[in-house]
Amino acid sequence: MSRTLTPSDRSAVLQQNRAGRGERFLRALRTPGGAVFVLLVALLAAIIAVNPSFGEPDSFIRFIGRTAPIAIAAIGQYFVIVSGEFDLSMGSVVTMQVITAGNLIGDDDAKVIPVLLLMFALGAFIGLVNGLVTTLLRVPSFIVTLGMMLALLGLVLFWTGGAAQGNPADSFRQIGRGGIEGVPVLGVIPYPVIILAAVAALAFWLMRRPYGRTLIAAGDNPTAAALTGAPVWWVKTRAFMLSSLAATVSGILLVGYAGVHPSVGRGYEFTAITAVVLGGVVLGGGRGWVLSAAAGAFALESLFTLLNFVGVQSTWRDSVQGAIIIVAVAAAAKTWQRKRKGTAAPAQEAQPPKKAKQSEHHNGTTAR
Amino acid sequence: MRNQSIRTAVTLAAATSLLALAACTTDPSVTEDPGGSAAASPEATEQEWFDQALYDEQFEQRTADFVGDPEKPYLQYIAGEMKDTSDLAVEGAQKVCFANASISNPWRQTGWITMNQQLKVLQDSGVISEMETRDAKDNDNTQIADIDYFIKEGNCDAFIISPNSTAALTPAVERACDTGKPVVVFDRGVETDCATTFIHPIGGFAWGIDSATFLSERLQEGDKVVALRILPGVDVLEHRWAAAEKIFTENGIEATDYFTGADPTEIKKIISDELATGDVQGIWMDAGDGAVAAIEAFEDAGKDLPVMTGEDEMSFLRKWKETGIDALAPVYSNFQWRTPLLALEKIFKGEEVPAEWVLPQEPIPADELDQWLELNEGMPDGHYAKFGGEDLPGYPEVWQERQMP
Q1: Which structural domain range is residue A191 located in?
Q2: Going by C-beta distance under 8 Å and a sequence separation of 6 or more, which residues neighbour residue B366?
Q3: DSSP-assigned states of every residue in B19-37
Q4: Do A313 and B263 touch (CB under 8 A)?
Q5: Same structural domain for residues B69 and B189?
Q6: What pLDDT is stored for residue B277 in this prediction?
Q7: Residue at B9 is within a domain
Q8: Which of B33, B104, B273 lies nearest to residue A305, judging by beta carbons?
Q9: How many domains does chain A have?
Q10: Nearest CA of chain B to the CA of A261: how many Å?
Q11: B78 lies in the same domain as B191
């Protein structure tokens, strides 16, 4: 963890970072965060090979549209995982928001905006509680968010008795179900696609801001990050809030896409975590790209679609998901580790005294 | 560094298996789907649940004559063996204990509301003092514990049991019978006939026959039907599919079945994927929960709406009316939730009751759609048209507000 660069290493790192675009691109593809894009392309190609009509622009854009909620959830989960924590409450937040929309909006168009604001406030509040309990009370996030998951599920059960209620006004459902009609080639651009693009752009921008850098540093080594003066507790708490807000956006899209049902959002936290892990983000924090997490969600959904097309029973789905988590974590952890060891080897021989973790930062830039 | 080689080996192994995972799914040899239904539902399941004798019996019962006033279908039954209950006759108001499987779907919730309104009537007339209810929340173990609690500490004068699952609850129901008190079982069955009476609509096979026959009459040989099923392992649901699958196979209709957990997200994905693979002419459902999502998937994909069978849930009936699709609403008579309390009233008086109380179960065809929509105007989407509580106190507000105790 603590080492400095000798001048020769530094020049090697600089050279690596100044390599040509093509070379940097190829190198990025060899990291887990880049490999997921290769996997995604391969899966999409396989689906189109099995079922050519899937590749037509209008069905493809619809596929993106219906995957948007899980991709947005994965982006939210990324913030928490990269900061070294977990958010297991995500699925329950989705469910709760779906039920909130169904019960509070009803058929009244005028209530759409106030309830939307309420839902975002509720999402931010849940994230705040998760974050503060984790950082200030030092309860492991695994436990905090597990507790939150059960508490919210209980609330939903109490509120609904476990059965579907009526759908909210169509104007609200349009957010997740409608789109811009009459677009050339595509036919229609579903609103979820636009919202996903906006969320992805925002997340990308945020990760390049000081906040994003600090978040990764806090995930990699909270002590070191705190020593540099970063308010780790607040950085992490905001990550939890981003996660709950992402779950809220997913919930809003799902109300439109599917309708109100207490089963909507079930298992979302695990699908999101699987997607993030498949995107090469290291559990435990400090490594991974935000857009790879979104790509992981698409790869996962593509895999399920492919399994569906080739006639594999849907009951296998959970087993596939479980296998992916294990394999992806093993592959990602080992690859990152090898990368670190490889570049750090000369520096380690020098056995320097404890200093800041510069090499991490430098050698990480290509990987983030 | 000494672990380097081990780590590399692990990495390679992990990477290879990931590749293998991806590779095996892209293998073109598995893309030829050998008859969708066979792939989606193993042969064993079908044989386990299909029962020719029961199928034939329910086929006949669909057109049987029912004893009793057609205005009160919840008291009608098919003539058969009657049980003498003169030794169970008692004086005064009795305490009833109800072990409920769950109220976790709109069908059970609607029935639960109706049952409570029926209870009020019987409390006012001095037949029942109180009803203690335990909700097992879809869990066999919880329900077994609930029944044992009732037996030991419930101070119950009679038991009503709506079993969560067939085999697991049989011993507990037998223990309740051993108390010598009246035991009324309704909805899902158990593997014992020790209960004073077992109340249920005709059954799952009748549902499957009605719905699959409707679809088969309207579709051509070789047409594709997607069957959306809630969950495996529950007899009343498995029987519906067992009968439907038999009829689809006989008529050369290609039916693929999926378990959805009634999750509308799942239903939409399934239909979208099916529509991306090829045209779908029919939708068959083993319960109406989520029917609207299925129709919406066709609308969103811009495809012709299918011929469809749903259920008498208001959301489906309304969507049916709105889209004008060719549809049928099979009914698993929700009014059966009134019958157990009314059966106990008879038993407390010592009047005979049918040993197996088979209630009518008639689907809603297109020409009755307007009538049922009108009768249930203002009811929420999760309400069931044939709930049979129009003459009970609190109608219609209690059902409109879905007030559950």
Answers
A1: 35-343
A2: B326, B327, B328
A3: HHHHHHHH-GGG-S-S-HH
A4: no
A5: yes
A6: 82
A7: no
A8: B273
A9: 1
A10: 7
A11: yes
Residue A51, amino acid: N
Q: Which residues in chain A are contacts of B21 at CB distance < 8 A?
A: 320, 323-324, 327
Whether the predicted pLDDT of A189 surpasses 50: yes
- Number of folded domains that form chain B: 2
CATH number for A56: 1.10.3470
Out of A54, A167, A323, closest to residue B21 by CB: A323
In a domain, A14, yes or no: no
Q: What is the structure's pLDDT at A10? A: 74
Q: A307 and B25: CB-CB below 8 Å? A: yes
Among A163, A258, A327, beta carbon nearest to B14:
A327
Query: CA dist B261 to B232, B258, B282, B309, Å?
Result: 9, 9, 20, 18
Quick check: is A357 in a domain?
Answer: no
**Cβ-contact B212, B248 below 8 angstroms:** yes
Give the DSSP H/E element, type plus range, for residue B301.
helix B291-301
Q: Residue B349 is part of which domain span?
A: 64-202+333-361
ipTM above threshold 0.85: no
Residue A348 placed within a domain: no
pLDDT value at B40 more than 50: no
Asked if B22's CB is within 8 angstroms of A54's CB, the reply is no
| Residue B381 lies inside a defined structural domain of this protein | no
Q: What is the pTM of this model?
A: 0.80
DSSP B309: E
Q: Looking at the structure, do residues B74 and B183 belong to the same domain, yes or no? A: yes
CB A90 within 8 A of CB A243: yes
Establish if B394 belongs to a structural domain: no
> From CA B215, how far away is CA B212, in angstroms rounded?
5
- Based on the fold, state whether residues B78 and B176 are members of the same structural domain: yes
Q: Are residues B178 and B305 in the same domain?
A: no
**Residue A253 burial class via C-beta count within 10 angstroms: exposed 0-12, middle 13-18, buried 19 and up:** buried
Same domain, B295 and B267: yes
> Are B144 and B183 contained in the same domain?
yes
- From residue A293, alpha-carbon distances to A88, A274, A281 in Å are 16, 9, 7
* CA A295 to the chain's CA centroid: 9
A302 located within any domain:
yes
Find chain B residues with C-beta within 8 A of A338's C-beta: 7-8, 11
Q: Is the pLDDT of residue B130 over 70?
A: yes
Do B228 and B192 fall within a single domain?
no
CA distance A311 to chain B (A): 6
| Contact call for A165 and B103, based on CB within 8 A | no
pLDDT recorded at residue B46? 47
Of A46, A51, A162, the CB nearest to B26: A46
CA distance B78 to chain A (A): 32
Chain B residues with CB under 8 Å of A331 CB are 11, 14-15, 18
Q: Where does residue B385 rank: exposed (0-12), middle (13-18), buried (19+ CB within 10 A)?
A: buried
Q: Which residue has the higher pLDDT, A133 or A353?
A: A133
Q: What is the DSSP string of A127-158?
A: HHHHHHHHHTS---HHHHHHHHHHHHHHHHHH
Q: Determine which of B2-11, B86-95, B190-199 has the lowest per-residue pLDDT on average.
A: B2-11
Residue B46 domain-assigned?
A: yes
